[in-house]
Amino acid sequence: MNRRIGNLFVVLAVGLVALIGMTTYWQVWARSSLEARQANVRLVYRDLAIDRGSIVSSDGVTLAESKPGTLDGRPVFFRDYPQDGLAAHLVGYSSLLAGRSGLERSLDTELTGSTGDLAGVVNSFDRMKGDTVRGDDVVLRLNAAAQRVAMDELERLGVRGSVVVLDPSNGGILVMASTPTFNPNTGLEEALRNPNSPLLNRATQGLYPPGSTFKVVTAASALDAGIVTTATTFPGPACIDSGGQKLCNFRDHTYGPHTFGYALAHSINTTFAKVGADLGKERLAATMRGFGFFSRFSWDYPPEQSLPSGVFNRRGNLVDPSGTFDVPRLAIGQERLLATPLQMAEVAVAVANGGQIIQPEPVLEVRAPDGAVVRRPSPVYLGRAMTTETAATLRELMKQVVDDGTGGAAAVAGLDVAGKTGTAETGRESKNDVWFIGFAPAKAARFAFAVLVEDVAGTGGDVAAPIAAAVLRALTAQTT
Amino acid sequence: MTPGRGLVRLPLRNRELGLIALALLITTVGFAAVQLARAQEFASSPLIATAFFAGAYLVAHLVVRITLPVADPYVLPITAVLTAIGLIEIYRIDATLARDQGVWIVIGLALFVGVIIAFRDIRRLETLRYTCGALAVALLLTTITLGTQVNGARLWIRIGELQIQPGEFAKILLVIFLAGYLRERREVLTAPTRNVLGVGVPALRHSLPLLIIAGASLVLLVAMNDLGSSLLFYVIALAMLYIATGRLLFVGLGAGLFALGAAAAVQITPRVQTRIDGWLHPWANEQAQCCYQITQSIYTIADGGVLGAGFGRGLILNGNGETIIPYAQTDFIYSVIANELGLVGATAVILLYLLLAWRGFRIATSADDGFSKLLAAGLATAVAFQVFVIVGGVIRLLPLTGLTLPFVSYGGSSVTANFAIAGILLCISQRANRERG
Q: How high is the pLDDT of residue B1?
């Protein structure tokens, strides 16, 4: 019997030793690969130990900050967004549930103090010792007061839309509004399920037919190519034949003989279609590339949240500019041409600053916990979209759009506003995607903007231009 | 050597006392570590708990010193270290739970003392074998019929505020019954009476007990909705049958029978099926019912690494103060230990069980009557195999089951039943050593 008892003990001992073996496997061999698994909440809980830097607007409004708390007896920091949905798309979120987006994601290394420089190395030692790591603070170029006005205007109308205002001298993002918005503190779960896609940053991820605002690009191309001047005259019929199909003016309006300048102010489709045909595909596509179409802007923002603009095929893929498309229709902003509000704001930037597009820049400066400035981005010029002369000509023509054309509603007392309206039919009964892009003051612009409203009954001049005016008033009230 | 002669001249008991003192040192250091890691201010409750713990163990030791002077000196200190580690981790999860557990440990030690006083002469238990068998069946039947389901398994009976897990006691009663029954019937079971294809097979009426046990275990599996308990009962029975008869064929036949039956029974118990899914494909859908507990358990274990975070310094609770792994204080206490004490601590805990099993089997081999041998070996198997099944479950070596980790897991039934096992083992040891000396 004793021998059998011994045998049984050996069998059970082997079983218990197998437990040690398997535990060793998890704790030694599999440990690092398990740590890296996305579903491992410990990963996120560990990040809570970092006192993430705050994000503040240029006018001193805190958009994101860390609040101390405790988790299982240890000090941790929970992210808080005091302004709720005010600039939720640009700022983004850092959440246990949904991960990170927006600047919270693209500026993560600075906000967590894990940069590659000496301070970052010191921080990584602190992290090993278990001391609290304090990340850098970020001051944005965003003007919170104007952002508030932009959000209020869009929300007041109850529409989906976007307002982007850039500083044409340095690319600084002064306003980046998108509706519907979401509350990064409490509304993430709901937002993930909402059919209106509130998490979508319509300024950078929303692709819309630019309609007549694209005539600014066509005009730049034609003026640069020398095939028109402001004085060149055109016949102005209601409709023309383009590739076997009728191409008509807005509401089939007949204009009669007029100049090129008048055609831009009154957004005459037949004239611009003719100009497009004369330009040809190569010259127009080259100008578009100069304005930033067909490629993603590289800027301090998660790349997947910033889409390129251009011509898309039926499957929704960006078409190479060398592909075939109906140039006259492209010239008036149709032909499956889609653009983000940020792209159209860049068009306004180029006209406003003498022909150059500049990389969008959300950050004014990054400050270390002790207040020392560790980074202050300088403007990055992305290339020339048109000659200085053409830009000057367009500034004059776009001023006429507001003074004497379709954009009258954008006028602001004491501020020379220049712009271009756009009304793109969506194919749905009396529903348009409407635009107003422009800049102010016309001569020495401090603001270049694009306003887009999705799916409304009105026109760019009726709906979008007044929003631009309201935001411009807020901006000038702040800066003067 | 007779009891009571010269309290100081008992080398085995002095060794026991020294080891208990070491266990109490571990307890004190552990509580202090948790207190330092977690509390902002000084609290007296762990101090009182440690004092109570020490007092209870010293009383138990004194009773052993008087009644069982030459019994094994390692069993009691091993239980002291294990209960201490469990108590500290439970305290770290929730102080209220730890207070309950402390009470259960004291009650468990009282039962231990009761057992060694009542059954100092272990042969007295042998006469109660059929009573024990009947009681075991009654307890299990009550559980099946009146039991409440917790986390899907029907393993508990609710009496007022109390939740009792009768299976823990039924297990011991079953071992006592089997030890008595098998000692009686051993010869008959060993003698082959028929020859089938050149293999000696006992007559049907002699294999009947085996078939009954196999059938009963499968009924338990379906009725309790838990693979672990039925597997435990069956393995204990098979192990004791093997020790009694030495017929591996019996064991092989029994194992095959159970495997076939279990494969069929699983089809009609969805909860067990879910557990098997979670065992085979835990990463497929980590948030789902099948897999959340087991994947969180593995993350928790892996997070501990070699040295662990330290008592009270791991990440066990979420923002709401709940354990990240549901049922961390009972089924998943091993994961918590592996997290806070690392591979070193987890290995030490397993080695303590190995040591306890070794002492149990050692007591079995040193005993000189069949009943004591079968009883000691059966109880040692019960503890060791239970550890294998529950720890194997939380580290994904086996499908997850609802067993407790002996002496460590939170729960009154588990703690008191295991102290009863320790008491019986010491009684057998006393008799074996006294007869030798």
A: 44
Q: How far apart are CA A470 and CA A340, in angstroms?
A: 21
Residue A375's DSSP bridge partners are: A366
A466 residue type, one letter? P
Q: Are A218 and A329 a contacting pair, CB within 8 Å?
A: no
- Band of residue B220 on the pLDDT scale cut at 50, 70, 90: confident
Which residues are bridge partners to A423 per DSSP?
Answer: A434
Which among B243, B303, B319 has the least Cβ separation from residue A5?
Answer: B243
For the stretch B228-279, pLDDT in tens is: 888 898 899 889 989 998 878 777 887 888 888 888 878 888 878 888 888 9
Per the domain annotation, does B17 fall within a domain? yes
- The phi, psi pair for A413, rounded to 5°, reads -60, 130
Min Cα–Cα distance to chain A from B232, Å: 13
ipTM of this model? 0.93
> How many domains is chain B partitioned into structurally?
1
Amino acid sitting at position A93: Y
Are B346 and A20 within 8 A, CB to CB? yes
**Residue B144: inside a domain, yes or no?**
no
Q: Is B40 on the interface with A (CB under 8 A)?
A: no
The secondary structure of B141-193 as a DSSP string is HHHHHH-EEETTEEEEEEETTEEE-HHHHHHHHHHHHHHHHHHHHHHHHHS--
Answer whether CATH 3.40.710.10 is correct for domain A144-368+378-479.
Answer: yes
- Looking at chain B from residue 301 to 360, which residues have their Cβ under 8 Å from any Cβ of chain A? 301-306, 312, 314-319, 321, 324, 338, 342-343, 346-347, 350-351, 353-354, 357-358
**Contact predicate B420/B172, CB 8 Å:** yes
Distance (Å, whole) CA B175 – CA B163: 23
**Structural domain harbouring B91:** 11-118
Task: Kindly state the DSSP code that residue B317 receives in the 8-state scheme.
Answer: B
- pLDDT-based confidence at residue A129 (cuts at 50, 70, 90): low
Segment A386-432, tens digit of pLDDT? 999 999 999 999 999 999 888 889 999 889 999 999 999 877 777 89
Residue boundaries of the structural domains of chain A: 144-368+378-479
User: Would you mind telling me the total number of residues written for chain A in this entry?
Assistant: 480
Q: pLDDT by residue (tens digit) across A37-47?
A: 767 777 767 77
A187 DSSP 8-state letter: -
pTM check: above 0.80? no
Give the best-scoring range by mean pLDDT among A323-327, A422-426, B79-83, B248-252.
B79-83
- Exposed e or buried b per residue across B164-194, where buried means at least 16 C-beta atoms within 10 angstroms of its C-beta: bbbbbbbbbbbbbbbbbbbbeebeebeeeee
